[in-house]
């Protein structure tokens, strides 16, 4: 594939499926960064990623089952962190990252 075609394919402003995927990945990365920065270090250390689903469900992906257990007690803090950066989250679900 010529470089120009590949560059166009990977352009996030492209309206195709790949452009949408790239935009979604960037949005998830930005959301994760904002939530991690809004939390104390001892809570943020285990967060791998965050996503906002339709309906206002914040999904926080963590590094291990131990982190999941710990952060399940902190769902209100996670929701507050998300809200503090303008995310309209109503519920929070903690998921463990697959190795």
Structure description:
The structure is a single chain. With 99 residues, the protein is an alpha+beta fold. It has a single domain (3-96), classed as GMP Synthetase, Chain A, domain 3, CATH 3.30.300. The chain is 52% helix and 19% strand. It contains five helices and three strands. The protein has helices spanning 3-9, 17-38, 41-44, 65-72, 75-84; strands spanning 47-53, 57-62, 91-96. It has a three-stranded mixed β-sheet with strand order 1-2-3. Helix 2 (17-38) packs across helix 5. The relative contact order is 0.15.
Tags for this entry?
99 residues; GMP Synthetase, Chain A, domain 3; alpha+beta; 5 helices; 3-stranded mixed beta sheet
What does this entry show, briefly?
With 99 residues, the protein is of the alpha+beta class.
What is the secondary structure topology, with strand pairs?
Blueprint: H1 3-9, H2 17-38, H3 41-44, E1 47-53, E2 57-62, H4 65-72, H5 75-84, E3 91-96
Parallel strand pairs: 2-3
Antiparallel strand pairs: 1-2
